[in-house]
Amino acid sequence: MRILFASLGSVGHTYPMVPLAVAARDAGHEVWFAVGEEVHAPLDTLGLRPFRPADTFYEIYAEDLAPELERLRPDLVVHGWGVPGAAVAAERAGIPGLWHGFGRLFPEGIGLTRPSGARPHLDICPPSLQDKDFGDQIRLRPVPFSPPGPLPARNETKPLVYLTLGTAFGTPELLSEAIEGLATLDAHVVVATGRVRADLLGDVPATVTVAKWVPQASLLPHAAVVVHHGGSGTTLGALAAGVPQLMLPQGADQFANTEAVTAAGASLRLLPTEISADAIAYQTRKLLAQNGFREAAHGIAEEIARMPSPAEVARELPDYR
To answer: Would 2-143+307-320 and 160-305 be classified into the same CATH topology?
Structure first.
């Protein structure tokens, strides 16, 4: 069977779809991936045949994908929540399709159009955290993905605190504030700066390791606490690893994610007006010291582990043709 995956051209939207695409490839299906060139390199390494439809860099419109559907004639299109145009193109071409989520069903007003139509959703959010009004779901275990690479050297005698603000919402000011607070802890802090240049952060203490990028999927199981922006990928990755979180939401779906995980007892939060170095240090100390947060995170990790794996769902994809 030939399957076409389609996504917004960003890490946060593409990477959650990679585990199922790889599982479909491993199950013997011919997999293609329509997406902007920013994420082509890791997809190409995995043999997922990435290509850029028309002049797409980030979004995909129905008109962009229509000629590619005519060219490839896939048996099934798996389209991310961020590319409703791909769903429209598949429907016009008479090709069956499935939505693929990236976390909780996001609220209105964040700059994305909520997915519509009668097509089922591949849902990677654990049921206890998902929007209760969610529609037709195919449960799919969230499996963190990041390109492989070496882990940063760390002091294994101290708890590891991982700090990331993702690829879109990090600023030198916020990262510096967080580093200042976390550096006061008896911990080893690893910081992924993303698009923020490390030289804009000034001098950092010896207990803080700063890198532009880290293999997050490999690092998360070693973390004692994750301090982050509340993006879906980091949120679900930390939960799958059973790691408590300090969430610093900045925009998009991050406030809704933060509210759900905090209500479940697996995180603490600081809203933008509450953030300071002292507040970040205080909240992280609580997460390190109080077992209840880790127990709640472990409970959600167990729930995630019970969800159908990408390999199990890939075997069922022919049923949706």
So the answer is: yes
Query: What is the rounded CA–CA span in Å between residue 60 and residue 73?
Result: 18
CATH 3.40.50.2000 fits 160-305, yes or no: yes
Give the residue extent of every domain in the chain. Answer: 2-143+307-320, 160-305
SS3 267: strand
d(C-alpha 317, C-alpha 24), whole Å: 8
pTM over 0.90: yes
Question: CA-CA distances (angstroms) from residue 248 to 112, 134, 147, 227?
Answer: 21, 26, 25, 7
Residues whose CB falls within 8 Å of the CB of residue 96, separated by 6 or more in sequence, listed in order: 75, 76, 77, 90, 320, 321
What's domain 2-143+307-320's architecture? 3-Layer(aba) Sandwich (3.40)
Residue type, 72: L
Please check the confidence at residue 167 and state whether its pLDDT lies above 80.
no
Task: Tell which residue, 6, 114, 27, has the closest CA to residue 310.
Answer: 27
Q: What's residue 26's pLDDT?
A: 98
Q: Which amino acid is at 182?
A: L
Please answer whether residues 190 and 162 qualify as being in contact, where contact means their C-beta atoms are separated by less than 8 angstroms.
Answer: yes
